[in-house]
Amino acid sequence: MFSFSVFGEIYNHPDTMKRLLIILILSGFPFTLPAITVTTDFRLPEPVTLDHNRITVGVFPQVELISIVQTISKYPQTFAFLMAKDSSEYRMDAARHFGPYSDHPAVRMLDRLSLQPGMLNFSAPSNIMLLADESLRLRSDIETDEFVISRAGGPDSLMVFLELLRDFAVKSSFTEFFCEHREFYLAMAEQTVNSMGTVNYIGELEDFYGRSQRSYNIVLVYLYGPVGFGNSLLHADQKRDIYNTMGPRSVKDGQPFFGDEEYLRYMIRHEFSHPYINPLTESYWDLIRDFAAGYELIPEVARKNVCGDWQECINEFMIRAITTHLAYNDSEEAGNKAYAREKSRGVNCLDELLKNIRLYESERDTFPTFDSFYPTILKVFQDRD
Fold first, then answer.
1. From start to end of the chain, where are the E strands?
2. Cα(237)–Cα(289) distance, rounded to whole angstroms?
């Protein structure tokens, strides 16, 4: 039996060799790769975070790494609305430091995968990086998320991509860059925490859904545009680490602003709700698919700006109704403002959803969790078919 070396590691199992060769060929790399040597003891720097009312807020190095790779790749040309456009000092620092590595195989692989619909774009890059540990290897303490992994081309493709990212991090001195900007990251976290106010959002959400989760995190990404992604990692006990990965709402004088209290309240409630609602929609998908014709009744403004397919519309409409309900709990003025916003975005069944949510809240003895109520509220969509 012969063996060969890829990324500085020796492989001598026939199946492993075959899979890696196929992945490398499909990845568009020449058969003879440039020298790629990754130290086995590589570790990312520690995240820069603050804790506030059970929410961890800050900059996570694995997500910062992928945002940098996205910035120097072709990704901003295709997904300009997802990436920062400012000419801030930090963005210029990143361009100067990492620009010479724009032709690294990790960047080329990102380009190939991100240009394919439903692959390594939108929420997938940050979600995939959260699957990785401090050595940029897949974490062993979480459940396998086949859907997320498929967006990197499958497990073998993801393994290659993480190896390439590790090499990129070593060659580009990512750790040194991250550590040099720790004070800047800390200032981002402090500004966000100071804007969050005193509301106990986690207590509110866990009371509403009737279930607790492992952790709640806000991942600040300066190089992203004003977007938010609701990511999560599932553990064996069926509880999740929940992440709201978000870019700044604006940048003023080179300083990022991730939103005032009203904006952050909406983002926290919305993005932290996705890991509660999305798995329920997936578990009832056989039923939901039977009345998918209802998608044609959804206003074009919603299909264009809120949800691209039937499953996504179920999730988005449900969550937007829940955040509107919670806004009414704040005050009638806040509720009316949220109601008007969601109606303008095409949530055309908002009244029926709110009526059902009020029913759920009034009958918690019958429906102790939102999971138990979910089949009931689904009838809103079924009746519209």
1. 4-6, 9-11, 48-52, 55-59, 215-220, 228-234, 240-246, 250-252, 255-257
2. 28
Angstrom distance (rounded) from CA 138 to CA 332 = 46
* DSSP one-letter string for 249-275: SEEETTEEE---HHHHHHHHHHHHHHH
Angle at the Cα of 376 (from 372 to 381), degrees rounded to 5?
130
Q: Cα(156)–Cα(261) distance, rounded to whole angstroms?
A: 42
In this predicted model, what pLDDT tens digit does every residue of 263-305 receive, in sequence order? 999 999 999 999 999 999 999 999 998 889 889 889 999 988 8
Contact 244, 335 (CB under 8 A): no
Kindly list the domain boundaries of the chain, sorted by start residue.
4-228, 284-382
User: What's the distance, CA 277 to chain centroid?
Assistant: 15
Q: Where residue 32 falls among pLDDT bands split at 50, 70, 90?
A: very low
Gyration radius (Cα) of the chain, Å = 22
Q: Please provide the distance, in angstroms rounded to a whole number, between the alpha carbons at the two ends of the chain.
A: 61
Question: Is residue 87 packed enough to be buried (19+ CB in 10 Å), middle (13-18) or exposed (0-12)?
Answer: exposed
Instruction: Report which DSSP code applies to 99.
Output: G
> Which amino acid belongs to residue 191?
Q
Q: What values do phi and psi take at 10, rounded to 5?
A: -95, 130
> Which residues contact residue 204 at a Cβ distance below 8 angstroms, ignoring those fewer than 6 apart?
269, 326
Q: Name the pTM for this structure.
A: 0.88
